[in-house]
């Protein structure tokens, strides 16, 4: 029976649920909005497979980056619609053209995020773009396993903990599997996203969501929500409260503060993220719509990259040059929960507005804290002459 000593360590990858031969584990959403396994004890036969596949209880050792590249697709439209350089789309297309399968994160009809598999390029478009919400894995690992056994070429894209979960779940290596983990700051709560979207979309049915709209450029990206041609929201990442709460870890999954797959321990073939800072080396004109950093971690990954290299622009760069540019903190260290996280969740059900609650936690309370520090210093100065 799965025994993750502390709930805060569970990353919600669903490997335990999918491996259970008795189907006695289900995922349940807690009050923070994250999924956790719940076991029906009377059905459990104590086979311990759930423990064996858990990426938190079992961790891979760190891999060494074999090569690093700055890359972007030549297709400007794809570049515009992707989060960074559109490289994941190009790799997906390559795999699909070889009659393979691609699994990634997409929205459902309620704009919740979940993982699914596709077998053609048209359908893979729904994976494009980062969704800043934890995605639900469902039974995708089992599907991946079935495809691999059929001998199909499979590409799986996810957060490092999801890739680690898949690699543990499979219990063996498959030459026909390619995995990409995205560089991951942390994953925000699906419940907070649900509340936020309901508040901003009031009475309008949402028809499109983009977390990385590039109208104002790749670096000044915005979150954009549409109801048909009506724009319900279009706000820069530094102004938008949902993005600020996410980037400041106000409603991040607890396990992200001790990420079980950081430091290249997911077992992925590629690690891909935004190459912030690339203009230090290359002309910004080239990268204005986005540039990805592609880290190759395995020989399998290296072979695939060599085979498809001419499909996009790439320039090899020494890893030491990449490292200092914010690349990057999330690769090697975990996120730190915001100090008002507890206050936020205590008030989430009573708050009249989720936006105001976020504003209160990251702006009002922060100002109060700063004011208090200044007042304390003044008090000390006037009383002790310090
Ligand atoms: C929650 C989150 C946090 C991130 N934090 C960072 C960071 O701190 N630093 C950094 O450099 N990059 C980060 N990224 C990655 C970055 O935003 C881009 O996804 C990456 O650069 C790939 O860009 P692309 O243009 O090649 O692909 P895109 O076309 O943008 O494709 C993105 C791929 O990511 C997958 N994906 C999207 N949303 C999710 C999700 N919620 N869960 C799992 N998989 C998802 C999709 O399946 C898709 O295949 C983060 C992404 C997410 C989802």
Uncertain runs are: none
Task: Tell me the strand order in the biggest sheet.
Answer: 5-4-6-7-11-12-3-13
Query: How much is the average pLDDT?
Result: 92
Let me know the number of strands.
13
Query: What percent of residues are in strands?
Result: 15-25%
Bound molecules: flavin-adenine dinucleotide
Radius of gyration: 22 Å
The structure class reads alpha+beta
Oligomerization state of this entry? single chain
User: Alpha-carbon distance between the termini?
Assistant: 60 Å
The total count of helices amounts to 14
Series of H and E elements: HEEHEHHEEHHEHEHEEEHEHEHEHHH
- Measured as a percent range, the helix fraction is 25-40%
How many structural domains does the protein architecture include?
A: 2
Gross morphology is: globular
Major sheet size, sense and barrel closure: 8 strands, mixed
3D structure, described in words:
By secondary structure, the chain is α+β, with helices and mostly antiparallel strands. It folds into two domains: 7-52, 2-Layer Sandwich (Alpha-Beta Plaits), CATH 3.30.70; 67-332, no CATH class. Helices cover 35% and strands 19% of the residues. It contains 14 helices and 13 strands. The protein has an eight-stranded mixed β-sheet, sandwiched between helices. Helix 9 packs across helix 14 (354-384). The longest helix is centred in the C-terminal third of the chain and has 31 residues, at 354-384. It is globular. It starts with 14 loop residues before the first helix and ends with a helix. Bound molecules: flavin-adenine dinucleotide.
